[in-house]
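Hi support team,

I submitted a single chain yesterday and got back a structure, but I'm not sure I'm reading the token output correctly. Could someone confirm the output below corresponds to the sequence I sent? I've pasted both exactly as they appear in my results page.

Thanks,
R.
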Amino acid sequence: MSTFFKKQKLATLISGVLALSVAPAMAQDAEQDESAKQKEVEKILVTAQRRVQSIQEVPVAVTSIGAADLELKQVSNVLDLQYEIPNISIATNTGTASGARLFLRGVGEDESRVSADPAVGVYVDGVYVGRQVGALFDLVDLERVEVLRGPQGTLYGRNSNGGAIKLISKAPEVNENYGVVKATMGSDGRLDARLTGNVGISDSSAIRATVLTKSRDGLHTVNPNGDFASQAGTEAGEKDTKALRIALFTEFNDDWTMNLAIDYTKDNSDPVPDSVALEEDADDNLFTIEPVPGVTCSAATPATFLSIGCFNDYHSQVETSGITLNIQGSIDEYDLSFLSGYRELEDDLSSRIGFPYTQQTDQDQFSQEITLSSNYDGAFNFVSGLYYFNENVQMDSVFVFPGELGIETEAYAAFVQSTYDFNESLTLTTGLRFTDETKEIDGFIPGTGNGRNEELGFDNTTYNIALNNQFTKDVMAYVSYSTGFKSGGWSPDCFSEAACFVAVDEEELDAFEIGVRSDLLDNSLRLNATYFYNMYDNLQIASTVPGLGFTRFNVDETEISGIELEAIYQVSDSLTINITLGTIDGEYTELTLAQAGGLTNNGVSPGCNDVVSIECAKDLQLKNAPDYKGTIGFTHRMALGDGELTSRIDFSSEGDSYSLVANAPTHSLTSVDTLVNARIAYEPNNGKWALALWGKNLTDEHYARAAAAADFSQYAADPLMWGVDAEYRF
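Hi R., thanks for writing in. Yes, this is the structure output for that exact sequence:
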């Protein structure tokens, strides 16, 4: 039986079982007596403002997903947050294995090389991760994920204009001894295994450790012709990841604790290979890689110019490690926190991004944060802190020409945020952060004499002000105004003297937001809505600029607005409905003719007719920013024997978007039909074990989330995937 028909039969089986489980339940719940008591929506606690608060009381756009829901919604990697957060766009960065292309509310960064900083901050247990390579973390033993949308310039600071993704690990549990083993077997030879152990070593200390291994066959087949025809049938895109995390928790006394954690990940997964875009593809299949029609592979072609379908050296090795020390305590009415973080990254990549591309990166970073917060009984409280960050990173690469690039960054910041309760319902929040940052570049292109060695300094003061009112115990609304800042830097390319590591200015943001947080219908319906309006000065753009090649530049002014909706409806004790929806309306509002040339790639954008004009550039859609994106999910629980059967099905949809700034060529269009994910799990009442059958992209949609302008290259998203999870607790 062909693989296609096997997948279709599995998709039909999973969908059918879910339909039999969920549909009758929905009909039954609809007929329930109105007086029957409904289960309330679970209260969610977050630390978005550096304090433990109910998510319904925080005047910030934040989504929190706990450990149980991470499993239920099949979120095992940062990439899987794709449809769980309003207005987020996540993909593996072009031609990489674990580089994160993160966009929130229409802004982000898809340049993984070392001279560009992220626009959406990723924080692992409070420690900022400076590089995008390796940032598509496997979620190892997490307690929850918090995603904060919009600028986080006061409390989080560094390069978080788009927002922040906080990965919060489970802490060791004192006086608890247990273990969890989980294995996954699935399509395309997938085999995962995870072991977690928690050991209480005294009445005040505990150790928690998790080891993880994940593997899967390649999804792509490379089929060269001509001189390389003997390589036809080679597999590409395989997964091979191993990770370890160990944490020691100690209670020194009733007031002071320490959490020391060490993590290590070795990811030998292949980069996502490039395929010929469907409209040019000879066999209309993104998962076979053959030359563009009319091209014959030749051994005489230099390795740095091999075309798509002829290149066959896809490999990647990424090693990341980190040490985090968090000491927390209280003195009288004050809480103190000392958070130290050290991280290292090494990667060795060979891929194709328009041309064959190799890079070797060596990075280390250190950060120290000291936080002091108050616990006054009165109307006024505050959180304040000092922050230090230092990063050294070196990258050697070959992209047409060999290049050497080193960046050193040193940043200092001081911040304070306060709240004042005018009365029992009305609260004013104000915040201020001062940042001083220095960056130094040492870049050189051997053989050409071109290079750049300079130092740039940036200082900025960001602030926020929010007013929230608790109209009733179940309805809160807020209005806020905040600013953000992303330091400048350089282009990672040096194609000529004029286009050699070109500098970009710092980016600044003014953001206005209105939000409503409500628990309705006797707390069975949670309905949260947010409107935002963001205005960027000097938005940093990575694109092809006439006369400079691929480079970075600023756009004078960009405006982005949208609406975000999150709803949870507990229809009954057994049935829950989740809805997530985000809309984006963005445009470049002020720009120069030179910037218009960069945005439209010298007028190749749709409607420009090869003429550079400001008017045509203003009509462009922001990249990785679909007009809408949403998910509706149904979770049903029912007693079965001595346990519980849980069924989950999600339907996700989004508008068309472009992965390239110019909205061209045509294969840069990301067009995705409705995606369907589903999961069925059984767990006995004693909680000793669990078994689940799951499927992703059940209708087997073939589409690409990234593209390169040259060679008609697209980078395919995963096709239909299925698997079985087995878990045992001891």
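A quick pointer for reading it: The radius of gyration is 26 Å. Let us know if anything else looks off.

Best,
Support desk
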